[in-house]
Automatic annotation (TrEMBL):
Domain of life where this protein originates: Bacteria
Reported function: Catalyzes the reduction of dTDP-6-deoxy-L-lyxo-4-hexulose to yield dTDP-L-rhamnose.
Residues annotated as domain RmlD-like substrate binding: 3-284
Region Disordered: start-end pairs: 268-292
Pathway given in the UniProt record: Carbohydrate biosynthesis; dTDP-L-rhamnose biosynthesis
Record's keyword terms, sorted: NADP, Oxidoreductase
Protein's UniProt name: dTDP-4-dehydrorhamnose reductase
Any one Pfam family match given in the protein's UniProt record, by short name: RmlD_sub_bind
Enzyme class: oxidoreductase
């Protein structure tokens, strides 16, 4: 029986990973939420990783704006802790599937970023996540997998889609930025892809390295908000477009962070589905993380 360790199991993605893994009786799953494992404690990480075949790392510092004033703390979780996980996996022989972000890119492209595009983060959060990617590449050149994702949402946890649904009940109109482009990604679909990649890695079908785990297609935050309204039977014209300079934030945001998905086919895995189709499924789910 394959032994799987899920770190960050209490977060939005972690919860969906557990929902996917519970459908697999062939797997023995160890749950490691923040209360169970401090990923910044290298000794605890080493002990936790031992005896597992695969580690799915969903633990992360996710406060993008907070990282601007606490970059060292963000890097401790997103960089140093990932290095400790990678080192523990190297010692034990476990595969590591680590979740990263589109924010490792500058966001100044005009077409989707391929997996091997040059990185250039524009904020502290992106730098901290890039540190984790580099650690996996350095320490696990044959058994490390980095999956970049973006614009994650679910019907649980804190995320843009839930915020739009809450504000729809509180306000007549919403102003949403229409000059940042990305790929809304349902965390349950990402969880399915992470588990499928782990399966392929263990079977020897997936080469190590970087994969892009976003949904296909692209839109803006404004386009996503309108889609959420429409799918819930609300008037999408209640959402009005605006520009990023109307909502200044401590951390700069990439203007274009659409990712390409070329490496999935090489791993004998299907490409990601369209973001709107996944959003439709997510909003029709009677409970968080219900599969299609």
């Amino acid at each position: 029986m394959t032994r799987v360790l899920v770190t960050g199991a209490g977060g939005m993605l972690g919860r969906d990973l557990l929902a996917v893994l519970r459908t697999r009786p062939d797997l023995s799953v160890t749950v490691a939420a923040r209360a169970d494992l401090d990923v910044t404690d290298a000794h605890a990480v080493r002990d936790a990783v031992g005896g597992h075949d695969v580690v799915l790392n969903a633990a992360a510092w996710t406060d993008v704006d907070g990282a601007e004033t606490r970059e060292r703390d963000a890097t401790a979780v997103n960089g140093d802790a990932v290095a400790a996980l990678a080192h523990a996996c190297a010692v034990s022989g476990a595969r590591l599937v680590h979740v990263s972000t589109d924010y490792v890119f500058a966001g100044d492209a005009t077409e989707p970023y391929p997996e091997d595009a040059p990185t250039g983060p524009v904020n502290a959060y992106g730098r901290s996540k890039l540190a984790g990617e580099l650690a996996v590449a350095r320490l696990l050149p044959e058994t490390g997998y980095v999956v970049r994702t973006a614009w994650l949402y679910a019907t649980h946890g804190r995320n843009f889609v839930k915020t739009m649904l809450r504000l729809a009940a509180e306000r007549d109109r919403l102003d949403v930025v229409d000059d940042q482009y990305g790929q809304p990604t349902w965390s349950y679909r990402l969880a399915e892809r992470l588990v499928a990649l782990a399966d392929a890695a263990l079977a020897g079908d997936a080469e190590p390295g970087t994969y892009h785990g976003t949904a296909a297609g692209e839109t803006t935050w404004y386009g996503l908000a309108r889609a959420v309204f429409a799918l819930r039977g609300l008037d999408p014209d209640r959402v009005r477009p605006t520009t990023s300079d109307r909502f200044p934030r401590p951390a700069a945001r990439p203007r274009y962070s659409v990712l390409a998905h070329g490496r999935w086919e090489a791993a004998k895995l299907p490409p990601p589905g369209d973001w709107y189709a996944d959003l439709t499924d997510a909003l029709s789910a009677p409970r968080p993380g219900r599969p299609r």
